[in-house]
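[Automated response] Your request has been received and processed.

Submitted sequence:
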Amino acid sequence: MIKATFGWLFLYLPMTQNKDFFAAVYQVVQLIPKGRVTSYGAIANYLGAKQAARMVGWAMNASHVLPDVPAHRVVNRIGLLSGKNHFEHPEQMQNLLASEGISVVNDQIQDFEKVFWDPSIELGLP
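Generated structure:
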């Protein structure tokens, strides 16, 4: 088991157990402010698992039954709504982002650099 400390956030990461990794992902996603987005890779990097962006995606895909996890704020590395088909309706992700002031055109977040929230910068790496 790996204990990782990120500021005030303490994560216990047995990397062989998906459910614990998923829980760590959800903790980070819950910290993304309204009106901001991050990427699967940025979350993976923050958790010390740089090559696990796809696993972060799996966690997001499984998070839709958790109302306190804002999965709509996690997109791919270039700002595309690559997870939109995992929502109840394909438009739901864009609608949720729009309700937070984020503009999306053709599944692409506009001004992606301005709304991008990098947990490694915002929360700091250990």
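Summary generated for your ticket: The chain has six helices and six strands. Residues 1-16 have pLDDT under 50 and may be disordered.
If you did not submit this request, please reply to this message.
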